[in-house]
Structure formats: C-alpha cells, structure tokens
Write a structure and sequence with these properties.
Blueprint (H helix, E strand, L loop, with lengths): L1 H17 L15 H10 L3 H5 L18 E2 L6 E2 L2 H5 L5 E2 L2 E2 L2 E4 L2 E3 L2 E3 L4 E8 L2 E3 L2 E4 L2 H4 L10 E13 L2 E2 L3 E12 L3 E4 L2 E17 L9 H15 L6 E2 L3 E8 L7 E2 L5 E5 H6 L12 H11 L3 E5 L7 H13 L3 E2 L2
Parallel strand pairs: 5-8, 6-9, 7-10, 8-11, 9-11, 10-12, 11-13, 13-15, 14-15, 15-16, 15-17, 16-18
Antiparallel strand pairs: 1-2, 3-4, 19-20, 19-21
C-alpha cells in the first residue's frame, strides 16, 4: 500500500507540474537549476553570456526559475528543474499526507536560490549532499528586494546518518527537523538561519550556527532586516534547538536565545551578557580553551546570552570542560 501511494504521489506531482508549460514565470523569484548549467555547457556559453541574458517578462538580467519552468530571451530554451521535482513541496494524495523516504542517495549541486519555497515531509537515511545550498541569497544583485520575504522553509524533515560536503545553509527557516548523526567533510556554518523544534543528536562533526547574512559588511540594511526578523521569529518559539544528546567534535552557537535551547547541563553552559560584563572571567585560568574569545564575542556583539558547548568528541574536551567548571565556580556561567 505504501509503495502504491508513493507511485501515485510521484505521478500526480509530475502531472501537476506539466499541465501548464506555457505559464508566465513569476519574476523576482530567481533560481538556477542543474539543467540550466547543462544547457550552458551544450551551447558553449561564456560566463558573461550565461548571466547576461534578458528575461522575456521583465528587465532582469538574471536567470529566472519558478515552479519547474524558466524562460530567457536566449533562443526558445525552456529549462526544467529536475531537482525541484525531486525535492518538492508538501504533497497530498486523496487527502493523505505522503512523507517521502529517501535512502542511500547522493544529491549534488541542488541549490535553492531566493525562492521562498517550502521543502517538507522527507526522510533522508544514509544520504550524501555535495555542493548543495538552502535559502541562498545574492545580496549584491538583489539587495533592493525584500529578501526576508523570500527566505525558504525546511519543515518536517529527518536526516539520519547523512554526510555533507561543501554545502551552505543560509537565512532560511528550519522547523520540526531531526538530525541524527552528521558527517561533515568540511566546516559547516549557517548564516542567519532560524530554528524551531530542531533536534540534533548522535555523532556530529563541526557545526557553527551564526546570525551573519552579510559577511562583507557592505549591506548593513540587509543584515539589520534579517536580525530584526529573527528576533521577532523567536518571540513565538517555545524551543528552538535540542542539543542535549549531541556528541559534537566542535560546536559554536551564536545569536539563539539560550532559554530556547535544550542542553546537557553537565557539558553545555549558559553565559549571560551581565556576567560577561562583570569581568570576573578575566581572573579565571582559561589557558588551552577558547572561552575567552566566546565571552569577548558576546560582549562585542550585544546579545543577551550564549551557550558554551564542551564537545564530547572533541580532542580537547577535558580541557574545555575544566574551563567551564572554573567559570562556574567563579560565578560566570551556569551549568546545572
């Protein structure tokens, strides 16, 4: 029965997306698909020619993609997004929600650009993600758009024993997601992403959650817009992250209120801005740790608090944990 539902779901989705091939794409929703790049390669287009075409429906000089159909003034080309068909929105067949289960698959270069789409109800098991991106934005070219309104949503997803290489998680919304074991081929850093009911457990490699959308500092208005949107978002969240069962090799969490994080009270401490400003930490022996840098970051950037994580699988776990104990004894952080 389950297999039949999956087949019906795929068939219905395919038909729905192909009924109207000639509809006008919605401008201001930009996305490049893998088929676009294949077309570029086949036509032997230069870098300038690839991105210098004019849309048939607006004045933009960028490739458009919306709901499987993209068109440019370049010939009669219609580029179809096979990845979008594969990782689509929530699907209902005869009123029944179908959650897709994907095992032992590799996803390469699936990039979600300024789409405002919702990716939901998928379970990934033993899958690999290479060169993928979620809720990617291009501030340089689209800083005049309301990029906050175009952030994508990942909801009701599960990742079990997956590995990631060269992927990016940008300022999207992540809700009701389980990550159980995650192998990272290199450092992964989120940028302005917000979280709600996200559980991270099992063996996790290097993980860094940050508020930075504009790394260059050239677009403070864009960074400010996302900062304000994130603050408003967290006002309506009962809990954001559960990292109590995660076994990190390294972990740095920034700009997420500590009251919204479920933690392991033995190895994950709460540092408040008030305690940091008191300066007692300066008299604590923190040699061999990076806790002083974490405290200075909190003071400099003005956030109310921060979680300090001693990674259980990190090489210097014992040293970092001892440092947390010293900070606790000095009244700087709270553990239990």
């Amino acid at each position: 029965m389950t297999s039949t539902l999956r087949k019906l779901s795929a068939l219905a989705l395919y038909l729905c997306r192909n009924l109207d091939e000639n509809r006008k794409p919605a401008c201001k929703r930009y996305r490049l698909t893998m088929d676009s790049f294949r077309y570029f390669k086949e036509q032997k287009l230069s870098q300038t020619e690839r991105f210098g075409q004019t849309c048939q429906f607006c004045t933009s000089k960028f490739c458009h993609h919306y709901d499987k159909t993209s068109q440019l003034a370049l010939g009669e080309a219609i580029w179809r997004g096979t990845a979008t068909l594969y990782l689509s929105e929530t699907r209902y067949i005869f009123g029944i929600l179908v959650m897709k289960r994907i095992e032992n698959q590799t996803f390469e270069h699936f990039t979600d650009w300024v789409s405002g789409k919702v990716f939901s109800d998928i379970e990934f098991i033993n899958c690999s993600f290479v060169g993928c991106g979620f809720s990617m934005i291009d501030i340089v070219n689209f800083d005049d758009l309301d990029l906050v309104a175009l952030r994508s949503v990942a909801r009701n997803l599960s990742f079990t024993n997956c590995d990631v290489r060269g992927c990016y998680v940008k300022p999207g919304i992540v809700e009701d997601v389980l990550i159980d074991g995650l192998k990272l081929k290199n450092h992964v850093q989120t940028a302005g992403t917000v979280f709600k009911h996200v559980t991270i457990k099992g063996m996790i490699d290097l993980l860094m959650l940050t508020p930075y959308v504009d790394f260059s500092g050239r677009f403070p208005n864009v960074q400010g817009s996302f900062d304000e949107a994130n603050r408003e978002y967290y006002k309506n969240v009962d809990w954001a992250l559960d990292i109590s069962e995660a076994q990190f090799k390294d972990c740095d969490i920034r700009a997420i209120p500590s009251r919204l994080i479920r933690r392991d009270p033995k190895t994950q401490a709460i540092l408040t801005r008030e305690k940091a400003l008191e300066g007692k930490w300066k008299d604590v022996d923190l040699s061999g740790t990076h806790w002083s840098l974490s405290i200075e970051w909190l003071i400099e950037h003005g956030y109310e608090d921060k979680i300090l994580v001693a990674p259980k699988k990190g090489r210097n776990f014992k040293v970092l944990l001892e440092g947390l104990y010293r900070l606790r004894d000095a009244g700087v952080v709270d553990l239990e």
